[in-house]
UniProtKB/TrEMBL annotation:
<dbReference type="InterPro" id="IPR036942">
    <property type="entry name" value="Beta-barrel_TonB_sf"/>
</dbReference>
<keyword id="KW-0410">Iron transport</keyword>
<dbReference type="InterPro" id="IPR000531">
    <property type="entry name" value="Beta-barrel_TonB"/>
</dbReference>
<dbReference type="GO" id="GO:0015344">
    <property type="term" value="F:siderophore uptake transmembrane transporter activity"/>
</dbReference>
<keyword id="KW-1134">Transmembrane beta strand</keyword>
<keyword id="KW-0732">Signal</keyword>
<keyword id="KW-0998">Cell outer membrane</keyword>
<feature type="domain" description="TonB-dependent receptor plug">
    <location>
        <begin position="45"/>
        <end position="155"/>
    </location>
</feature>
<dbReference type="GO" id="GO:0009279">
    <property type="term" value="C:cell outer membrane"/>
</dbReference>
<comment type="similarity">
    <text>Belongs to the TonB-dependent receptor family.</text>
</comment>
<keyword id="KW-0798">TonB box</keyword>
<dbReference type="Pfam" id="PF07715">
    <property type="entry name" value="Plug"/>
</dbReference>
<dbReference type="InterPro" id="IPR012910">
    <property type="entry name" value="Plug_dom"/>
</dbReference>
<feature type="domain" description="TonB-dependent receptor-like beta-barrel">
    <location>
        <begin position="279"/>
        <end position="726"/>
    </location>
</feature>
<keyword id="KW-0408">Iron</keyword>
<dbReference type="InterPro" id="IPR037066">
    <property type="entry name" value="Plug_dom_sf"/>
</dbReference>
<keyword id="KW-0812">Transmembrane</keyword>
């Protein structure tokens, strides 16, 4: 047993006290009673579920709220850490659509695709502390028409902050656990129930890596205020985040078998990293007459590359087996102000404006580029600066049996991205830390300014005919992407636009009894292009961009859904089926290893068809006991082989299963809560996942068990303990960390976290 096991056995206490729960965002129509943690979208014409605050606070404090939604059908969440916060590893797919084909919002504010590349938003864990979340709503289909997203081909995830209670008081949480995990959180509640009310909070979390050495930590501040003015309401939000995380080594199945599950970067063993890099290249830098080792901005060095077959110590076979260190650094400010006001007796106006500022870096110790002083490696960064400003709003008005909603969204995103190199001090001392932003680069390989202007509108009519409800509407958008070189490289400059003014949706709900309803619908969605050198149409060279800019089609999807919901005080559940036709799939093929940063080629490569079944339900057993279970079956396959511009076969993938799309996912929970004592056991099963397009490389299925146990001393004081991966299962967590290839094993896997234990003391005042 690990040392933390003693902490688990000694504590025997875990809970999520109602004293700390806050008002969640409005759920779907006619939600079940407050004891129900998962709401199955009653009254909705599409598949929708909502996770309430009670389900989030019962996780280890600071856990990614996306980890709470992995229990929902068709949601595939994965990460290499127990909290789901490690951004290089964090992935979520829904119905086989990957993360950048989904839509994410926070209190309506667009979060972009929440990708590590950080080009159009920020991750939810950098927008709000987990203790301040009120609810998370998942639409497995295309999502609501009013969602501020232009990438939601396959679903939306909407997170809502908790409203202030209006009661003066304070809350404090203190967590300690495996790998010297320490997290402290404090919130001060201010105001009155009927007047101005708000809260301000601060959280700090830090954990050592569970293999290798390094640290991942974050400072987070949140503030929310609500100001009632007559029948109107003004709300404001402000958050700050400073996150710094040292990375784990990307693996392949071959590396896992050869080097073991616990293999990682060499940090802090600098001498070993120098040895590996030296074996790759023994380089003497050449200075030109001007004294620069890089004449005309290009690398110019001589020296013989290590011959094929160069031996490394132990089972190491290349310099890519272990880098010295890598890290992600992110700082974010997010602010918003909104207005909700009635317009007469039958209409309501909602407006919100927001601003987001981000600066960050992804750092990598690369053995492919030496430092000018003769050190056989350097620090390669991808650097980000972002300023987003936008506004969205809608008007709801009722005319007889019809509820009409009309709205629009505009955003201007100015994004700067650069690739720079920084020198290590010497062969014996690195002279810099991967937890700090480096200064004084010796080379800027490229730098680009991107401007993205987004305009989207929607029209929706919900017609209530009593037993039958009909939902009709459409949305449209125009997104213009522009790239301008600051430091030119092979990447292109220019403009490209994605425009689709009519994306229709239609649906129905039929109440077949007081407890049951049938729902069904159709929706069509288009995805805009991305603005970055590392993804999207600007990730190729100028000639490639010029060839595709007028011919490249945005990705599109058609989603058909049909299902049944049933709700009684004893059972609450849903059963559904879907068909998704996805066309104009865009594929960027990487050349060389990920660290080399070579351009990729982007093209439309055909379609995907996904057919699936989803089921989930809560069963109340009485005396504080309950069961939850969900199951999803997904059959997602490529409909076309990949061909090049000449019609030649590149990859034979027709009828192959979509990468990172397990056919079977099943989740189960056994819960007990008598108001004082609490325990939960959760099982999470996922079948085989492929990480090559031809399906010749895969990771096996896995079953992970989590558990919790707790005790409430009073309605103000409780102790909570969480155990993740209780039986210490060895498994691959993330696939595709370095992208996906056509065939063969690749260094694109991250090992899942081992058994971990965490204890939390919560106190209210």
């Amino acid at each position: 047993m690990r040392p933390a096991t003693a902490l688990l056995l000694a504590s025997t206490m875990l809970a999520a006290s109602p004293a700390f729960a806050q008002t969640a965002a409005p759920a779907a129509d006619a939600a079940p009673d407050e004891a129900t943690i998962v709401v199955f979208g009653r009254g909705e014409t599409r598949q929708v579920q909502e996770i309430k605050a009670q389900e989030i606070v019962v996780l280890t404090p600071g856990t990614n709220p996306l980890k709470a939604i992995e229990k929902l059908p068709s949601v595939n969440f994965q990460s290499a850490d127990p909290f789901g916060n490690y951004e290089w590893s964090q992935r979520v797919t829904i119905r086989s659509f990957n993360q950048n084909q989904l839509g994410f919002t926070f209190d309506g504010i667009p979060l972009g695709d929440m990708s590590y590349g950080n080009h159009n938003g920020l991750h939810i864990t950098r927008a709000i502390s987990s203790e301040n979340i009120g609810s998370v709503r998942v639409s497995q289909g295309a999502g609501s028409l009013g969602t501020q997203a232009t990438g939601n081909l396959g679903g939306t995830v909407e997170t809502f902050s908790a409203d202030p209670t209006g009661e003066m008081g304070a809350q404090g949480n203190l967590t300690y656990g495996s790998n010297d995990t320490v997290r402290a959180f404090a919130r001060l509640n201010l105001g009155t129930r009927d007047g101005v009310r708000g809260y301000v909070s601060y959280g700090y979390g830090s954990t050592d890596k569970y293999k290798g050495q390094g640290k991942q930590d974050q400072h987070m501040g949140n503030a929310k205020v609500i100001v009632p003015i007559g029948d109107a309401k003004i709300d404001g939000w402000l958050s700050y985040s400073d996150r710094r995380e040292q990375d784990y080594q990307d693996m392949s199945m071959g590396m896992i078998n050869r080097l073991g599950w616990d293999w990682d970067n060499t940090f802090p063993d600098y001498a070993r990293a120098i040895d590996y890099a030296s074996r790759l290249n023994d380089v003497d830098l050449v200075s030109n007459s001007g004294g620069s080792p890089f004449p005309d901005g290009r690398f110019d060095y001589s020296g013989a590359s290590v011959a094929t077959g160069q031996t490394y110590p132990g089972n190491v076979t290349s310099a890519d087996d272990a880098y010295y260190d890598a890290a992600g650094l992110r700082k974010d400010w997010l602010g918003a102000i909104g207005l909700n006001t009635p317009l007469g007796e039958m209409a309501t106006l909602n407006l919100k404006g927001y601003y987001h500022n981000n600066s960050g870096m992804g750092l990598w110790a690369t053995p492919y580029v030496p430092s000018p002083n003769g050190v056989p490696m350097s620090v390669r960064t991808t650097e980000y600066k972002m300023d987003r400003i936008g506004a969205f709003g809608s008007v709801d008005f009722t005319i007889g049996s019809q509820n009409l909603n009309v709205g629009a969204w505009y955003e201007n995103n100015k994004f700067n991205q650069a690739r720079r190199f920084y020198a290590f001090s010497s062969r014996t001392e690195p002279g810099l830390s991967f937890r700090d932003y480096p200064k004084n680069p010796f080379f800027t390989q490229w730098e680009f300014d991107f401007t993205t202007d987004t305009f989207q509108y929607h029209v929706q009519d919900k017609i209530d005919l009593g037993m039958v409800t009909i939902n009709l509407g459409w949305k449209g958008f125009s997104v213009t992407n522009k790239a301008e070189a600051v430091v030119q490289a092979s990447f292109p400059q220019g403009k490209i636009k994605a425009q689709d003014w009519f994306q229709p949706t239609a649906g129905f709900v039929v109440k077949v009894s007081p407890d049951a309803e049938v729902f069904g619908g159709f929706s069509q969605s288009t995805r805009a292009f991305a603005s970055a050198t590392t993804t999207g149409p600007f990730s190729t060279n100028q000639a490639g961009f010029d060839a595709i800019r007028n011919n490249l089609k945005p990705e599109e999807s058609d989603t058909y859904e049909l299902g049944l919901r049933y709700n009684t005080p004893v059972f609450n559940g849903t059963l559904g089926a879907y068909l998704v036709n996805f066309r104009n799939r865009l594929l960027a093929v990487q050349v060389g290893s990920a660290i080399q940063g070579n351009p990729s080629a982007l093209q439309n490569v055909g379609g995907v068809r996904a057919v699936g079944v989803e089921a989930a339900g809560n069963l109340t057993l009485g005396s504080g006991f309950s069961l939850y279970a969900s199951y999803s079956y997904t059959d997602a396959t490529y409909r076309d082989d990949v061909l090049n511009g000449n019609g030649d076969l590149v990859a034979a993938i027709k009828d192959k299963t979509v990468v990172d799309s397990p056919k079977h996912m099943a989740r189960g929970e056994f819960n007990f809560d008598d108001g004082q004592r609490f325990f939960r056991v959760g099982l999470n099963y996922m079948s085989r996942r492929y990480y090559s397009y031809t399906n010749d490389a895969s990771v096996p299925g896995r079953l992970i068990v989590d558990a919790s146990l707790g005790y409430r001393f009073t309605d103000k004081v409780e102790v909570q303990l969480n155990a993740t991966n209780l039986f210490d299962k060895r498994y691959v967590g993330t696939i595709g960390s370095g992208g996906f290839g056509n065939s063969g094993d690749a260094q694109t896997l991250l090992v899942g976290a081992p058994q971990q234990f965490f204890a939390t003391l919560k106190a209210g005042f």
